[in-house]
Amino acid sequence: MIEKLWETLNSKEWQIYLPVNPELAQKRIIASGDSALRLFTPWGPPYNKEALDLREGPEIKTLKKLAEIARLFASYEIDVQWVILGADLYGTEINRLGNLGGPPRISEEVAKRYFSNLNRALLVRLPKAKLYLWSQIRSKYQSNYFAYQQEHNTEKIKQVIGESIFKQMTYTAKLICRLSSKEEAEIMALRYLKERISEALLVEAIWQPIKISLAPPGKDEIVDMNLPRLYLIPRELQTPWLAKS
Length: 245
Fold this sequence. Notes:
Blueprint: H1 2-9, E1 17-20, H2 22-31, E2 37-43, H3 58-75, E3 80-86, H4 88-94, H5 108-125, E4 130-133, H6 134-140, H7 142-151, H8 154-161, H9 163-176, H10 182-207, E5 210-212, H11 217-220, E6 229-231
Helix pairs in contact: 3-5, 7-10, 9-10
């Protein structure tokens, strides 16, 4: 039965991009016979206030697809525990506008309201899912987080991701955060990369999940470390929190 599920997940009907670390993903599916299978999906914050009303928004369409995936696993008698991680701190702390001391991309109030609305939508569309905020997880596992941050200093990050990807991330940070200085863009990019790597390591340590990504593989490459990842979400349903931006 597990082999049939894996075959289905890798079929053209479901697979949008090739899976990453598929051996570990398959191993975790097989092990779910003894305990619930944990799926993990990070969910970004909105970058404008218009995205707060989710009733008719793109978020609902994406949640419907996640519910469809949950039903697929259930059809193979696999109990799924879905962890949705609200990436609030990326909007309120990590990414800044104008310069390193500039305002956050969104306020804490907007982030809080958005994820509260998302949680209500989850209760309807994906009731077995559990929404956590990255700020909560980071605070709860503070010692682990600081250890990962300390381990992945600037030199190690540049070594891990490579020069070309770092330059690309620096350019992206400069555009998104509207920075005028290349030096500030590099610092912003490093801050983001450290946070993503620390998040991936912490998620793996806590849940040992399979990630169901809402972004294309290029957004996850390297920063997701060894997390096994499946890409089952159609392109038009990816990153719903940006659809109104």
